[in-house]
Structure formats: structure tokens, C-alpha cells
Amino acid sequence: MSIKSIIMSAVALLVSTACSGGAKQEKVMNTGSKAIVVYFSHAGDNYAVGNIEVGNTKIVADYITELTGAELFEIVTHKYDGMAYNPLIKLAQEEAKNGELPEYEGDVDFSGYDTVFIGGPVWWGTYPQVMFTFFKKHANDLKGKTVIPFTTHEGSGLANCVEDVKKAFPGANVQKGFSIYGHEVRTEKAKVEKWLKGL
Fold first, then answer.
1. N or C: where does the chain have the smaller number of CB atoms within 10 Å of the terminal CB?
2. Residue 96 — φ and ψ, nearest 5°?
């Protein structure tokens, strides 16, 4: 089965389920659209969940691909590898304060995608700075595309992430976004599914 067929089937199911029993709403993800999930996730020492092998945001990104057929691109940097939580958040604060743009590995071509999910943890009120490196590089690549931010957090919700995505991609159709507690991601897949059904 082709990726396009998978996306069409999954989105059609989500749309039909979301519309049943209530007023029909305009859908963000249309049947036949091609989607990608771009995310940064931090494994290792994390607040509230301890030392984890798979980052909270990666789990949500995997749920999205499983439920919609979207493809994945992970923003990878090794700058934070092996850091304990307290030194990590101190470094993240300094990066945000100084507007640093850490390097990341690999890249993605957005020309074949209609919908772009953008996800990451909330560090000091927004996404980690390495994501802004990615945003700067692709500032003109998401014009006319539907962009859906999501976050994992431990009390910050979406924080400033949606506003920062709107600033980074002024020509995109940026949606209101979704947030979930990091300590919930392993047991609350249903929350992600409910959100996706509403798109």
C-alpha cells in the first residue's frame, strides 16, 4: 500500500469519525493531503519522568504518524546528549537568552507536503533553540501549507510556541496547536487520537 493511500484512508477515517453525530466542521487535513511530522525530542534525564530512552515528543510524533500515515523528520543535535536535567535547563536558558542557533543533522524538502506538524518540548517558554535553527533555514518553505504545532510539557502548555511558529513562517496557515504533559504520553495515546480526529 502506498504512503498516499495510507494517508488518504487514515484521514478519511479521522474526518468521518470526527464529523459523526455533530455539526460538520471545516477540516484542516483534507483527504489526499500529504503530511510530515518535524520534531525535536530529548531522551535522557527529563523532568517528571526521569531518565528515559525515548523522548516524550518522539512518542507523540510516532502516534501522529501511526494514526495519519504522515512521514517523519527528526531534528537531531548531539549538543545535549548525556546531560543531567539541571545543567540542561541552564544551558537551554542561556541559548534562549543569547539567541543561539545550534546545528542539527540532515534536512528535509517540504515541496511534496501539504501539512506540516511541528513538535518539541517547551524549554523556557518556547521550543528549544535548535528548532529555531531549522525554522530559520526553512523560513520561506512553508508558504501556503497547513502547519500544526504541538508540544510536550510539564505545565507550560503551548507557551509561546504557536506565536513563534507564526513569526517563523508568516506565509503558512498555522493552526492553534496541541499540548500534552510529558508524563502522560506513554499512557494517554487517546488524547492524541482525539486531537487528530478534530483536525
1. N
2. -65, -45
Pairing mode, strands 173-174 and 146-153: parallel
8 pLDDT more than 60: no
pLDDT 10s digits, 82-122: 899 999 999 999 999 999 999 999 999 999 999 999 999 99
Nearest to 11 by CA among 92, 69, 85: 69
